[in-house]
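hi! just following up on the protien thing from before. the input was this:
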Amino acid sequence: MTDLPGDLPTALWAELAALPRPTLSALFGDPGRLQRFSTALDLPGGTIRFDWSKTHLDAAHVAGFERLARSTQFAARRAALFAGEIVNPSEHRAAEHTAQRGLGKDTSVEEAAALHTRMRGLVEAIHDGVLGEVKHLIHIGIGGSALGPKLAIDALAREDSRVAVHVVSNIDGCALEEAFAACDPATTMIAVASKTFTTMETMTNAASALAWLGDNGIEDGFGRVVALTAAPEKAVEWGVDETRVLPFPASVGGRYSLWSSIGFPIALALGWEQFAELLDGAAAMDRHFLDEEGPANLPLLAAFADQFYSRLRGCQTRACFAYDERLRLLPFYLQQLEMESNGKSVTADGGAVHGPTAPITWGGVGTDAQHAVFQLLHQGTNIVPVDFIAAIAPGDVLDEAHHRILLSNCFAQGAALMAGKASSDPARAYPGDRPSATMLIDELNPATLGALIAFHEHRTFANAVLMEINPFDQWGVELGKEIANAIEAGGSKFDASTAALLAAAGIG
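and the predicted 3d structure came back as:
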């Protein structure tokens, strides 16, 4: 795919909007459709089948989106991402999460390898008992510093955890107390994860965790603390010994950071070898995204479908349902990844975006969601594109009927959304022609989970390029923080409603 000169996106969007939109049943009249829109990608941990055939993409729309990708300089922007160039103009930064997996600017890849070696040394020292008996880790962070580790540990370390990890993100003291109740202070370490080491929620929780250690007879609380940060000097100033500070580069964004030292709790829970497999799976997806062109590039094809529904069909939400209890946290992870990255209203150069940007990402776990929200998906007035994610190999050792019924329900839902069902009773009629995509994993393991997460990272980036926005800043989260800090500092004046709420709560 070569880049086209000139500023063509507006005209190309108009061309895309004018194309006919066949129904799914009509599209499946083409016997080659499944082959063209379904790909089995072989990865270090097994195969993932990506099936986008039940979306409304057709040859004309794909060709139009390819022209759009050329006009928005997709190939050049992808190359800039992997080359470590400035792709986050509002903060004048690169976005070098792929370097953590071994693909990127040579110096950044070398730095990532060195920092991983440092982290591995600490992980293995803890496992070998060099720091005494460690049975628990309370990992304190928020946003990307918590969501990635929590997802990976919940998915992969349920029954075979080297160290039990308790992830605490909420400033609500109930969350921290729950972790305290599960831990023995004598065998517990604390990880404080903050890119800037100034995040109010994280540092408040960290101070309370230190106090808990002290209140329970631990004389040197700081001796139990590991800092995960892009500001190592602030961690040392706060009191953490330099040997237990695990840095990562400022060019690694929070929601892309689980591959860096933010992944310390993952490695501690799983062991280093499995953490390395997580990186390898993500790197395999990186190579696919970097090497493949057009609709053969799976994250880009997914972005074509995303843009079809959000921009051309006016769909304001996209749902993700994991038919695997181990992936129950994936929708929450994707909410931050997609909405914090692409929930923008200005282009990368500061102009207004002409059209919708990121849809609202939501979802749940099958089959629970079938008895809660699928009524709206099948018969509601909102058209919601759905992603189904499942694994062929079960994660349990119970009667195989459990997993067979789980997968049968997953596949049945996609078929039902597409086919619908006519009825003389309107209340029992299903309109059908409702889109879905399916990602079917041979086996959920560190490598396939890494590939799945990296797929969604690149899908998010591809969407941003097509919309001409910057997916690597998040200024929208700052204003609320500023006002909360002003409330804490006291003396600020607010609107009558906020002032009344503060007074009722006894604040200020």
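The first helix runs from residue 9 to 18.
The two ends are 58 Å apart (CA to CA).
cheers
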